[in-house]
């Protein structure tokens, strides 16, 4: 066992012994399929704290032939697959975390020299009779020529250099060229598995790592279920730890990943593993995912001077989605030509979720939404944060059935977020959703809820932990009347969709008058 060559199963053993362990060994079946094929180069990128390192430790423990780890895996999902025994403990594994080398050196040359020196030391310890060359590439070629056993190469935090050396393009290219020379078209590579936050960096015609197949937050392919916790896995945890699933979903769900395979498409609702585990262990919901990094990282990007970026952020903060083109993103943290490039980066960082079918992005959940509020509160978007702060009082006026105060509160929100073009019912809907931002504390907010004879514009449905709060149906009108909105709710029987809330259900009609530029509101309570 070495530091980098066949590092052992210790870290994976720790994961198995933890209070919460979710079996993700199905990932191994996927990687087994790629070994010694043209698809043996895998770059799997996902946000920090989404289980990248744990997966790396698992792969190392499984493939490492210096140790018999069957006792660790025999009871897990992978043991039920046809490829389990074929690849278990059959390879030399080289496992490196690039962040370790980057943090201990002052330049890319020093970093790469240390990396090679340390790996070569491990290779010499095991294969002293074969290793003569002072370069790991030639050493690994010689070892493979003598043994015919390929290596499994695992690279964690592969993209850390692009995050730390954001503007040093020469160092970035030198690093990419090293990885290409080490890995590309080498017979000694049985599998190369890289993981990080960013997909492979694009350099125009400089296609250093074009052999890698990318699996990312924008296109996870058939690896989607391994990007975090699935909804079924979270339901099981909630049952075990006696936590409310509906509240867990509101806090941590929202990452929509579509798996495309020959067996068909499957949509996964993905949860942040770090957040779910912390909530279960502490038996308390809270913003855990971002505790290791402040909101300042988000603020840097959303306050960039990109045309339309502020509109997009405000629209998403109001609960809506925004169309984007992810194709121009160059997979780094400095090259931004349009707002779409910024938004695509935020998808990879975990601050947005991408719907690959609709080609839209949105803020995934309550936890992440709070990070936007934290970031905006320190920026010059005073009108937006004022509207968010006022939303608590506006919700209370709704509960008090004070229609005049609700209309006045929406007027204020409209004036404050004039960044949005206010010329149709969609803009009205966005304004009202932002005005009622605080309602997410208690409600599941459903836009265009299907009913018996149409779609209700906005429904506020209290989650079980807040069942004392009234449900509400909000119908919006543009240049008509609030009374007409109430009549539509009744005539189209929208109430039937929320019939369980009769006795604690509010019907809310809201109209915007283009001439007076004022809102009007009518509120009625539905009797039992």
Q: How would you describe what is shown here?
A:
The protein has 3 domains: 206 residues, Rossmann fold; 153 residues, no CATH class; 145 residues, Trna Endonuclease, Chain: A, domain 1 (3-Layer(aba) Sandwich), CATH 3.40.1350. It is elongated, with a radius of gyration of 27 Å. A 5-stranded parallel β-sheet has the order 2-3-4-1-5. Strands 11-12-13-14-15 form a 5-stranded mixed β-sheet, sandwiched between helices. Strands 8-10-9 form a 3-stranded antiparallel β-sheet. The model has no long low-confidence stretch (mean pLDDT 91). The longest helix is centred in the N-terminal third of the chain and has 19 residues. With 528 residues, it is an alpha/beta fold.
